[in-house]
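Subject: Protein record for review, amino acid sequence with backbone structure tokens
Category: Structural biology, sequence-to-fold work with a learned token vocabulary.
Format: Residues in single-letter code; tokens as whole numbers, each standing for a residue.
Body of memo: The sequence and its backbone structure tokens, given next.
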Amino acid sequence: MLLLMASAAAQSVRVSVYNYSQITPETVAQMEREAAAIFRASGVTLEWLNCRGLPDELDDAACWQELASAGLIIRILARPAFPGSFRGEPLGYSVGRSADVYVSTANQVDCAIPGAVLGAALAHELGHVLLGPKAHSSQGIMLAAWGRAELRLIARRLLCFTDRQGDRIRFAAAARARRPRPE
């Protein structure tokens, strides 16, 4: 008997993006493409919602509704708000359902594709939002500190989540999808 297994539908996660830095919309779009490709390799589709203004000043109804729901939030910042609180130069930071990515640190990286580095940092921080704060690993995109080897992999679009992390991310995305959305 031959059984045809239905392939698992890709999980989808909505992400509100707030660009508080001076990078161009084209660079933001490149970051989003890079992060989306990393997640897509693990079976998760990222849906981007580019928002303007501060969360309490939103004039965009879709951004406001997403903020009111349990959607994920990314802030692109010029530099860390509290630079002395980190060891080394962080590319990002996450807490709860939100994450920050720091442009100043990515600009210091000797890489021909800063948008790729920012996109990988974005994927890493979204990984923390979905996997938890202690999700660092000994390999892959969730490595705590990236060196030259990881930057080469980023440039070749080869730094990604491990299979186990991909499984956990799909599970977390599915759990988020089951939550009721506010009307």
